[in-house]
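Hi support team,

I'm filing this because I wasn't sure whether my run with magnesium ion finished correctly. The job status page said complete, but I'd like someone to confirm that the output block is well-formed before I use it downstream. Pasting the exact inputs I used:
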Amino acid sequence: AALNARIAAETPERGTVPSLKNSVIAFSSLPLSNNTLRGLEFNAYTNMTAIQSASIPHALAGRDILGAAKTGSGKTLAFLVPMLEKLYRAGWSTQDGVGAIVLSPTRELAGQIFAVLRKIGKFHSFTLGLLMGGRNKNRREHNEFLQEQQSIPNTNILICTPGRLLQHLEQTPYMNADSLQMLILDEADRILDMGFRDQLVRILDYFPAGERQTLLYSATQTKDVKHLATLSINRKKVEYVGVHDKD
Ligand code: ADP
Ligand code: MG
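And here is everything the job wrote out:
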């Protein structure tokens, strides 16, 4: 109840950006779980960047986010922090299966997101998976795929490249995204540039249309990104967050 009161008090009105451009807002002023705050503190993340302070309060309020901010502005924490809170507030545990999926255009970027998540999520008990192999080109890669298949039923948060996620959705018997709580599309503009549009559309078909929360981030706001948003964001509670400051 105390947490709910704080959330109510600190949730901005729709359409408002809670930070002035140059004001500094600490993560500790947000209604976050101690596990998340400790993870941030442990890694010396104290104050939010502009895109973080503009989007995290809305995401914590359960809204879908269409966010744009240039490379290096801190988009990773802008989606990982609300993701951890969403699963934490839902009391998500290992046997609940896949609760959140992060899609990233390249293996390298997926690996970076995974590394940040391991660091800031270390005081949570969610199980994490990184799905980004190639398509069974050789024995070693095939074994990697089999290993991923084994671990998926007990994994709460999946960081994936689009092709690999689709491969698991199509071929992994216990891959179950029916209760997915949050879908995150990172670098949506690059996902489209790299020609993953059709795979994305097929991936979206596997997910529940209902109350899933969707966070979509990109460096640029193009027409294609907006179109992807209409395909992937299926609720009316969308918050558009663009940060274009020069610093
Ligand atoms: P983007 O995805 O927008 O390109 P990243 O999430 O990769 O940006 O963050 C860029 C850099 O900024 C990283 O080195 C990250 O550790 C750092 N960073 C992100 N948020 C903060 C913060 N709140 N305080 C300090 N450094 C941060
Ligand atoms: Mg990024």
